[in-house]
């Protein structure tokens, strides 16, 4: 049974948590493969509203093994808090597995994320300040500490002391901050290690074995295609690879294991943090999306910027992820707009770009070329069959599939799992 990859096709918050939760019914394993607790995935099911940052969105289901794979950066204190929070709601986390190769977010990563952002001033990225960028930077520089280091105090201390010497020099001399204390960090992290020990595993091997046994594996992306370090709107991106290729690297699987790549796409576009956003709509329509869609960041509470659907992005996401289908979310939010707009291309210096432009300047300065469609006034929250959607809403969905070159398989009309229509 081949694995399924689920990725965001925009700048995150497309509704990956809801989509994963729905598909979890048909899965045995749900795996996070990159990012860290910069993610915020909301799942509404069985009377719960869960906001998950690190734990995969399949955790609610007893039959599912949740896996935090090699490519994730883990803040162990946050992970334990999230596990405790789930336990207070009666959700069992005993089957959660964490890769021994996953890198650790350390206290100096959090500190550096804050101070470097401040240093960038007007050029700042608006990160989630969870230490993500600094942790991935250390991983690439080969000075990261990993989950497996939590199980050996001597090695942990040895590695930490070397790194901390440099980090403390930077924190105190460049950023005028107080140096961090190695003993304190060792004490805290050994405590985390003790609690996490039963969950530490060779997750690549576990997943490979599961696939050989015909088990069903869903690889749940965090962030989105346009936040990808290599393929997103660099430098306004995160420091990992949310795209489908990143799922293979992050989980430790080969490309032959995957047959289905689902692109989760919001029926409009949002973005938290800084960076280009060609279809951003600061007028009444954007405000309406923001309010009706409750567009506030799950992790940082920041107001999300909103704008019209951008077919250039979905076409690009289809290419760089090899999407086999779309899962379209939040169509209900668009009810009541008298005119719907879809961006079909960008215009820059007299030239039309139907494909995502290859240069940052073009993306920053591009003017969207819109196609207008009819709106609809009917509430969609109660719709359960594709044929019950108003004709204008169906036309909107079909136009998105046409322009993206990928079929829409699911349309979501509300946050609850049953508020989903199969096409
Ligand atoms: P993720 O990061 O991709 O998992 O998305 P978030 O959870 O950060 O943001 C999506 C928000 O939209 C959450 O609050 C969901 O409960 C909500 N949501 C998901 N699908 C729908 C939908 O079809 N309609 C509405 N109204 N809300 C939805
Ligand atoms: P989910 O999984 C939306 C954004 C931040 C910032 C940039 C870099 O919920 O879709 P980072 O802290 O990663 O270094 O910040 O990326 N960002 C997200 N935006 N959804 C997310 O996750 C995000 N994770 C990071 O706002 O612009
Ligand atoms: Mg989110």
Written account of the structure:
The protein has 423 residues and is α/β, with parallel strands linked by helices. It is 33% helix and 21% strand. The chain contains twelve helices and 20 strands. It has helices at 16-24, 76-88, 107-120, 132-140, 153-174, 182-196, 203-212, 244-251, 284-292, 311-321, 360-365, 391-404; strands at residues 3-8, 29-32, 41-45, 48-52, 65-68, 73-74, 97-99, 103-104, 200-201, 217-220, 258-266, 269-271, 305-307, 309-310, 325-329, 339-348, 351-353, 367-374, 408-412, 420-422. It has a ten-stranded mixed sheet, with helices on both faces. A hairpin with a 7-residue loop joins strand 19 and strand 20. The longest helix is centred in the middle third of the chain and has 22 residues, at 153-174. The model has no long low-confidence stretch (mean pLDDT 96).
How far the N terminus sits from the C terminus, by CA atoms, comes to 24 Å
Mean pLDDT: 96
Report the helical percentage.
25-40%
**Biggest sheet features:** 10 strands, mixed
Structural class: alpha/beta
**Per the principal axes of the C-alpha atoms, what is the gross shape?**
globular
- What value does the Rg take, in angstroms? 22 Å
- Poorly predicted runs: none
Write the layout of secondary structure elements.
Layout: E1 3-8, H1 16-24, E2 29-32, E3 41-45, E4 48-52, E5 65-68, E6 73-74, H2 76-88, E7 97-99, E8 103-104, H3 107-120, H4 132-140, H5 153-174, H6 182-196, E9 200-201, H7 203-212, E10 217-220, H8 244-251, E11 258-266, E12 269-271, H9 284-292, E13 305-307, E14 309-310, H10 311-321, E15 325-329, E16 339-348, E17 351-353, H11 360-365, E18 367-374, H12 391-404, E19 408-412, E20 420-422
The structure holds guanosine-5'-diphosphate, 6-O-phosphoryl inosine monophosphate and magnesium ion (MG).
Magnesium ion is lined by residues 12-13, 39-41, 298.
